[in-house]
From TrEMBL:
GO molecular function, one term: ATP binding
Pfam families, per database record: Pkinase
Gene source species: Trametes cubensis
Entries under SMART domains matching the protein: S_TKc (SM00220)
Protein kinase domain location: 50-422
Keyword Zinc attributed: no
Gene Ontology annotations for the cellular component aspect, listed alphabetically: nucleus
Protein name as annotated: Protein kinase domain-containing protein
InterPro entries noted in UniProt: CLK_kinases, Kinase-like_dom_sf, Prot_kinase_dom
Family annotation (Gene3D superfamilies): Phosphorylase Kinase, domain 1, Transferase(Phosphotransferase) domain 1
GO biological process: regulation of RNA splicing
Record's keyword terms, sorted: ATP-binding, Kinase, Nucleotide-binding, Serine/threonine-protein kinase, Transferase
Classification lineage: Eukaryota, Fungi, Dikarya, Basidiomycota, Agaricomycotina
Length: 424
C-alpha cells in the first residue's frame, strides 16, 4: 500500500503543548520533540504482507496493532511497532528489546517449546521487521495476540482479587517464564508488573475474526489544530481484545509476560544500567546502588503476588504524596527486618540512607508491621475468612522468600518453582 506523506513541516513540541491535547499516543511528533516518533498507523494499512485491522494499545516506546497475514497461514497477529526513538535506542546500544526478541525467535525455531516449559508464557516473535514512516525507521515484531492485562482482570473482578488457587496458577506460570528468560535467554525483564502480564487467548483465528466482525474497530473523532496539521488529525482508538476462551472463574487462565523494552541481557548489564521499573516496585539493590540482575524480577514477583492477593501495592504511596526512597526503605525495614550489613557494604548509596550500624538515617514515622501483620489488617479481613491458618502461613513464607533483602541469597525462579506453596 502506497502511503502519501504530507510535505507540511512537522510541528515542534512548543506548538503541540500550546493547546493541543492528544487523545492517545502523539503520533504527530517525531523524536526531535522528545521520546516520540510513533508510527502513524491507519486501519486498513498494508505493508510487508500484513493488513492492519485494529489498534490494541500503546505505551511509552511503541504502539501495538492487530493485523492479518495476507498470504501463507493467514494468521492474525499482534504487531508491536517501536517508536523511532526506541529504534534509535536499540541501534545505539542503549536498549535491547530487539536483541532479546531475536534470541527468543531463535530458541523457538530450534524447538524451544519442547525443551523449555516457560517459553509458552513469554511473548515470542514470528518475525522481526523494519518499517519506515514520515518520522524515520521503526523496528517491529509479530507475536500471537493476547487479551487484557492482569491489572485489567483485577479491576473487573467483583472481589478485585484472585482466589488463592488462581493466584498460585498465575505465579507458577510467571516463574516458568522467568526461569526461561533468566536461564535460557539470559536476560532480566526489569519491568515486571501486572500491566506487563497479559492473558493468553484460548481462541482460534476464526474466533478472533468473529469477535472483530461483531465489534468493529473505531477511530476517535477528528481533531483540528493548524499548529499541528493542515489536515484533520486522525487517531485510531485503542481496543484491546477480551480474554476469549478464559472462563469466568479463571481456573483455566494462561498468562504471557510481555514488553522487553526495559529488559537487559546478562552480558550487557552494567552498574549504570537504566532502571525503568516503577519506584515502588524497585528492589533494595536498585535503590541502594548495588549491582542488579535477575533477582530484581523475583522481588517484582513478590509485589505481583501481594497485589493479586489484596489488590493493594505493598509499598504503594498515596497519590497525593511524592515518592521518597527514604520512605520505601523504611517500609521494607519495618516489614522484613534489618538490612544485612554485608549487603549494605556492597551498596554504593548505602551511606546516603544508613549509618555504620545499619540504622536508617531518616526513619519516617511508620509502625513496625511485619508482613503477617499487614495481611491480618482489618482491610484484608477476607484473607482470614478465606484461608486456613496453614494457607496463610505458607503464603507469607513464600512471599518472604521473594522479598529476601540481599539479592545474593534471594531465591531464583527455578528454586521458587520447587516451593511447597505452589504444590499445595
Amino acid at each position: 500500500m502506497r502511503v502519501t506523506v504530507s510535505t507540511m513541516p512537522l510541528p515542534s513540541l512548543d506548538q503541540i503543548s500550546a493547546g493541543f491535547e492528544p487523545l492517545e499516543e502523539q503520533h504527530m511528533l517525531n523524536a526531535k520533540c522528545g521520546p516520540y516518533g510513533y508510527y502513524p498507523m491507519r486501519l486498513g494499512e498494508q505493508f510487508k504482507g500484513f493488513e492492519i485491522v485494529r489498534k490494541l494499545g500503546w505505551g511509552t516506546a511503541a504502539s501495538v496493532w492487530l493485523a492479518k497475514e495476507q498470504a501463507g497461514k493467514c494468521r492474525i497477529v499482534a504487531l508491536k511497532v517501536l517508536t523511532t526513538n526506541a529504534t534509535h535506542g536499540y541501534r545505539t546500544g542503549q536498549t535491547f528489546e530487539i536483541k532479546i526478541v531475536k534470541k527468543l525467535g531463535e530458541i523457538t525455531r530450534d524447538g524451544g517449546h519442547a525443551l523449555y516449559p516457560g517459553l509458552q508464557y513469554l511473548a515470542t516473535p514470528f518475525n522481526v521487521l523494519s518499517l519506515q514512516s514520515v518520522h524515520g525507521d521503526h523496528y517491529c515484531y509479530a507475536t500471537r495476540p493476547c487479551g487484557l492485562s492482569l491489572g485489567n482482570v483485577l479491576d473487573h473482578l467483583p472481589s478485585r482479587r484472585f482466589s488463592l488457587p488462581v493466584l498460585k496458577r498465575i505465579t507458577k506460570q510467571i516463574l516458568l517464564a522467568l526461569e526461561c528468560l533468566h536461564d535460557v535467554v539470559e536476560a532480566t525483564h526489569a519491568d515486571m508488573h501486572i500491566g506487563n502480564i497479559l492473558v493468553k487467548l484460548q481462541a482460534s483465528d476464526s474466533d478472533i475474526q468473529r469477535y472483530l466482525e461483531e465489534n468493529p474497530s473505531q477511530i476517535h473523532p477528528p481533531q483540528y489544530d493548524l499548529h499541528v496539521s493542515a489536515e484533520p488529525i486522525i487517531t485510531v482508538k485503542s481496543q484491546p481484545l477480551p480474554n476469549i476462551g478464559t472462563n469466568a472463574s479463571l481456573t483455566n487462565i494462561e498468562i504471557c509476560l510481555v514488553d522487553y523494552s526495559a529488559s537487559i541481557p546478562k552480558s550487557s548489564m552494567r552498574p549504570e544500567s537504566l532502571i525503568v521499573a516503577p519506584d515502588v516496585l524497585q528492589a533494595p539493590e536498585q535503590i541502594l546502588g548495588h549491582p542488579w540482575s535477575h533477582p530484581v524480577d523475583v522481588w517484582a514477583l513478590g509485589c505481583v503476588v501481594v497485589e493479586g492477593l489484596t489488590c493493594e501495592e505493598l509499598f504503594g504511596v498515596p497519590a497525593f504524596l511524592p515518592y521518597r526512597a527514604e520512605w520505601h526503605l523504611a517500609r521494607i525495614f519495618k516489614t522484613f527486618g534489618s538490612f544485612p550489613r554485608t549487603f549494605l557494604e556492597r551498596c554504593s548509596k548505602a551511606s546516603k540512607y544508613f549509618d555504620n550500624d545499619g540504622r536508617l538515617l531518616e526513619s519516617p514515622k511508620l509502625e513496625n508491621l511485619p508482613l503477617e501483620q499487614i495481611l491480618k489488617d482489618s482491610d484484608f479481613s477476607f484473607l482470614r475468612e478465606e484461608l486456613s491458618q496453614r494457607e496463610f502461613d505458607d503464603t507469607c513464607r513464600f512471599l518472604r522468600r521473594c522479598f529476601t533483602i540481599d539479592p545474593a541469597i534471594r531465591p531464583t525462579a527455578s528454586e521458587l518453582l520447587q516451593d511447597s506453596w505452589l504444590r499445595s
